[in-house]
Design a protein that fits this description.
- With 187 residues, the chain is an alpha+beta fold.
- It has helices spanning 2-16, 86-100, 115-125, 173-185; strands at residues 40-42, 55-58, 65-67, 76-81, 105-110, 131-134, 153-157, 163-167.
- An eight-stranded mixed sheet has the order 1-8-7-4-5-6-2-3, with helices on one face.
- β2 (55-58) and β3 (65-67) form a beta hairpin.
- The longest helix is centred in the N-terminal third of the chain and has 15 residues, at 2-16.
- The protein is globular.
- The relative contact order is 0.20.
C-alpha cells in the first residue's frame, strides 16, 4: 500500500511539471514548464509569457489587499516562502538584500495556517518587503502548471509582468541581481 501511495505521489508531482510533448510554452498567458528538468530557467524577451495578476491578503496588514498590479511598470521578484521552510530562513535575508539594492520583492507566504507565526518570522528578520498571505495555496493556483511543492522558489517578472526567470531552488541575492539588472536595462 505504501508503495502505491508513493507511486501516485511521484506520478502527480511529475505530471504537475509537464505540459505538452516538448515542454514549450504556447499562448500569451504564463503556463509553467521545466524544459529538461532545469531548476534555473530564463526566458528571452520574445518567449516571455504574462503572469496572472496575483492578489491576496497582505500578510502584515490584515484586511488590506496586496496585488502585483500595485507594481505596474516595475520589475518584480516574486518569492514563494513559508516560515516552516528551513531554506526560506536562509533565503529571507537575501531577498531583503535585494530590496536594499533597489529591487522590488513581493513574497507569497504559503502553507502557514497561523498568520501570527508568519508575521513573527517577518518581524524577527526585519523584512521590509510585502507578502501575500496564501495559507491554502489559492493564489498560487493562478500560476498554471507551477510546482506548488517547491518552496522556496523565485519568479522574476519584467516591467510588463511577463515571466523573465524562474528559480526552483533557494537563491542568493547574487543569483537574482544580474537578472534584475538586465531587466532594468531593457527600458
Amino acid at each position: 500500500m505504501k508503495r502505491l501511495v508513493a507511486g501516485l505521489v511521484a506520478a502527480l508531482a511529475l505530471a504537475g511539471c509537464s505540459a505538452g510533448k516538448d515542454a514549450v510554452v504556447q499562448g500569451s498567458s504564463f503556463s509553467f514548464v521545466s524544459p529538461g528538468g532545469r531548476i534555473d530557467i530564463t526566458y528571452d524577451v520574445a518567449d516571455r509569457q504574462t503572469a496572472p495578476v496575483l492578489a491576496g491578503d497582505d500578510l502584515m496588514n490584515e484586511g488590506k489587499q496586496l496585488s502585483l498590479a500595485d507594481y505596474a511598470g516595475q520589475a518584480v521578484v516574486l518569492n514563494l516562502w513559508g516560515q516552516w521552510c528551513g531554506p526560506c530562513r536562509t533565503e529571507a535575508p537575501e531577498m531583503e538584500s535585494l530590496v536594499k539594492q533597489g529591487v522590488q520583492v513581493v513574497g507569497i507566504d504559503v502553507r502557514d495556517p497561523a498568520r501570527e507565526v508568519a508575521q513573527d518570522f517577518v518581524r524577527d528578520r526585519g523584512l521590509t518587503y510585502p507578502s501575500i498571505y496564501d495559507p491554502d495555496g489559492r493564489v498560487l493556483l493562478k500560476l498554471s502548471g507551477y510546482p506548488r511543492n517547491i518552496i522556496p522558489s523565485t519568479i522574476v517578472l519584467d516591467k510588463q509582468h511577463r515571466v523573465a526567470a524562474v528559480f526552483l531552488r533557494p537563491v542568493l541575492a547574487q543569483d537574482v541581481l544580474p537578472v534584475t539588472r538586465r531587466l532594468a536595462a531593457e527600458g
